[in-house]
C-alpha cells in the first residue's frame, strides 16, 4: 500500500496497520527463540507471537508477530539489538505489568551468534554472552542487559539498557513497574563485585540496577538470593521472589521483600532442602497459588516437577497436589513446567504453560488427576520460552474470592487473569 494516498485511504491504512500490529485481548503471547540448527550458548533472535485461544485449543496468528531487532553483524551491535541465549531455558520469560498494559522481556544487547562459551567463571572467553560489565570482574567485553517493554500495540515497543546487572550469568525476568522495572536473574558468585549484581533487583533509571535485598552486605548470600527465577508485585504492592537453587542455606521457595530483607513465606520451609525448584508462580486469590517447577532439582522430579497447587489454611501454605502429565503423541508423558499464566472465571482455573518438552500446554484444574493438553509444538528451528496473556486482557472477578492480601503478605501475582 502506498504511503501517500487520499486522506480517507490514508486513514484507513493507518487503522489497518495499527490493528495488525496490536495483540488482541483474551489470547496468549509466546516468546520464541529463533534458532536454525542445534541449541548453543550464543545470542539468538527473539520473536513474540500471539496464540489465538479457542477453549483448550487454538493456533498462532501469523499476522500478530513482534520480531525484536537483532544485529546480524558479528562485530557491531545496532541500537536495541535484542538476543537470548540459545541454550538457557531459564531465559525468555514474559511477565505482564501490574496495570496489565505492558509485557516485560529481559535479554542481552549484543549481536546474533555472539558467545559460544558455556563456562561463566573468571578467565572465560571475553566474548561470553552472559555478561554485564562491573567492577568485580576481569572480563574485557561488556554485554549490557536490555529490557523490551511491549504494549498491546507492539509497534511502539521501547527498550531500556542497563549495566551492573547479572554479571556472568542469566538475566531471566523483567516486570514493567511504573516508570521502572523489577528484575530477576543470577550472577557469578566468585567475588563480591559479581555477586552484588545478582538476585532480585530494581531499575528506575540509568545506568545500573540496584539490589532489592541484601543491601546491607552484597557479599552475604542468604539475604541477596543471588539465584532468582522470578520477581513480581502483588495487589498489595509487595514484591514476591521465587528462588530455585539451594545455596549456602537458602531454602528454595517464595520470599517477600520486607525492608530490604527476603522473608520466606509460611509453609515454604518444606519440602526438603534442594528437593524442588520453583521457576514461575501465580497467586489466584489470597488462598490459592500455582507454581511451575521444571523437575530439575533433587532426585524425584515426578514428586515435585510440574504444576504445583498450594493452598493457604489461614496460617500457612501447603502443597495440595502436583499436575505433571501431558498428552503428547497419544500418550501421557511427564511435564515439568518453566513458565505459566492462569485465567479464571472464579469457579474454574485454566493454566497455560511452557513445559520441559518445549510444548505450549494447557489444563483445567480439576484436581490431581488432571492432565495437560498440548496446544502447540515449536516449528523446526524455534524454541518456546515464555507464555503470558495478551496485554489488556481483563481480570474476571472471582465470585466470593478473597482478592486482598493475607495480612499484607500475598495476593495475586501480576494482577492478571
Write structural notes for this entry.
By secondary structure, this protein is mainly beta. Helix content is 6%, strand content 38%. The protein has one domain (7-415): Methylamine Dehydrogenase, Chain H (7 Propeller), CATH 2.130.10. The protein has helices at residues 7-20, 192-195, 221-224, 301-304, and strands spanning 28-34, 43-44, 46-53, 58-67, 84-85, 95-96, 102-108, 145-151, 158-162, 171-177, 180-185, 201-203, 210-211, 228-233, 239-243, 253-258, 261-264, 278-285, 288-293, 306-312, 317-323, 325-328, 331-334, 337-344, 349-355, 360-364, 372-376, 382-389. The strands form 7 sheets. A 6-stranded mixed sheet has the order 23-22-27-26-25-24, with no helix packed on it. The protein is globular, with a radius of gyration of 21 Å.
Short overview:
This protein is mainly beta. 6% of the residues lie in helices and 38% in strands.
Q: Architecture, CATH level 2?
A: 7 Propeller
Query: What is the domain tally?
Result: 1
Count of β-strands: 28
Helix-strand makeup class: mainly beta
* Alpha carbon gap, first and last residue: 38 Å
Q: What name does CATH use for the topology?
A: Methylamine Dehydrogenase, Chain H
Q: What percent of the residues sit in helical stretches (DSSP H or I)?
A: under 10%
- The low-confidence parts are 1-18, 116-141, 215-224, 397-417
- Average of per-residue pLDDT values: 77
What is the CA-based Rg, rounded? 21 Å
Summarize the main sheet. 6 strands, mixed
What is the top-level CATH class?
Mainly Beta
Strand residue content: 35-45%
Number of helices: 4
What's the overall geometry?
Answer: globular
Output the strand order for the largest sheet: 23-22-27-26-25-24
Amino acid at each position: 500500500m502506498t504511503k501517500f494516498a487520499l486522506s480517507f485511504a490514508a486513514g484507513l491504512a493507518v487503522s489497518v496497520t495499527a490493528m495488525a500490529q496490536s495483540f488482541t485481548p483474551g489470547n496468549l503471547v509466546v516468546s520464541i527463540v529463533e534458532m536454525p540448527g542445534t541449541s548453543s550458548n550464543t545470542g539468538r533472535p527473539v520473536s513474540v507471537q500471539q496464540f489465538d485461544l479457542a477453549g483448550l485449543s487454538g493456533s498462532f496468528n501469523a499476522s500478530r508477530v513482534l520480531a525484536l531487532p537483532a544485529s546480524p553483524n558479528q562485530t557491531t551491535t545496532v541500537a536495541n539489538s535484542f538476543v537470548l541465549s540459545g541454550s538457557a531455558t531459564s531465559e525468555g520469560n514474559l511477565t505482564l505489568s501490574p496495570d496489565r498494559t505492558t509485557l516485560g522481556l529481559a535479554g542481552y544487547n549484543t549481536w546474533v551468534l555472539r558467545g559460544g562459551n558455556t563456562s561463566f567463571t573468571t578467565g572465560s572467553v571475553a566474548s561470553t554472552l552472559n555478561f554485564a560489565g562491573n567492577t568485580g570482574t576481569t572480563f574485557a567485553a561488556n554485554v549490557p542487559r536490555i529490557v523490551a517493554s511491549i504494549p498491546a500495540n507492539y509497534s511502539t515497543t521501547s527498550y531500556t539498557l542497563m549495566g551492573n546487572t547479572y554479571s556472568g550469568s542469566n538475566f531471566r525476568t523483567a516486570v514493567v513497574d511504573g516508570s521502572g522495572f523489577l528484575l530477576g536473574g543470577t550472577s557469578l558468585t566468585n567475588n563480591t563485585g559479581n555477586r552484588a549484581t545478582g538476585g532480585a533487583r530494581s531499575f528506575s533509571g540509568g545506568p545500573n540496577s540496584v539490589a532489592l535485598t541484601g543491601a546491607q552486605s552484597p557479599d552475604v548470600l542468604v539475604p541477596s538470593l543471588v539465584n532468582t527465577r522470578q520477581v513480581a508485585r502483588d495487589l498489595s504492592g509487595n514484591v514476591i521472589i521465587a528462588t530455585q537453587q539451594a545455596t549456602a542455606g537458602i531454602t528454595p521457595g517464595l520470599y517477600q521483600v520486607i525492608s530490604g530483607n527476603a522473608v520466606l513465606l509460611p509453609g515454604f520451609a518444606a519440602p526438603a532442602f534442594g528437593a524442588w525448584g520453583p521457576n514461575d508462580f501465580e497467586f489466584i486469590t489470597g488462598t490459592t497459588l500455582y507454581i511451575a517447577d521444571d523437575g530439575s532439582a533433587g532426585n524425584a522430579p515426578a514428586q515435585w516437577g510440574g504444576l504445583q497447587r498450594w493452598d493457604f489454611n489461614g496460617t500457612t501454605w501447603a502443597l495440595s497436589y502436583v499436575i505433571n502429565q501431558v498428552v503428547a503423541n497419544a500418550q501421557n508423558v511427564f511435564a515439568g513446567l518453566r513458565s505459566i499464566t492462569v485465567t479464571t472465571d472464579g469457579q474454574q482455573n485454566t493454566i497455560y504453560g511452557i513445559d520441559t518438552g518445549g510444548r505450549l500446554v494447557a489444563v483445567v484444574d480439576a484436581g490431581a488427576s488432571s492432565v495437560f493438553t498440548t496446544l502447540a509444538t515449536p516449528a523446526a528451528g524455534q524454541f518456546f520460552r515464555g507464555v503470558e496473556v495478551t496485554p489488556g486482557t481483563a481480570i474476571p472477578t472471582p465470585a466470593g474470592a478473597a482478592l486482598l492480601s493475607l495480612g499484607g503478605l500475598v495476593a495475586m501475582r501480576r494482577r492478571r487473569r
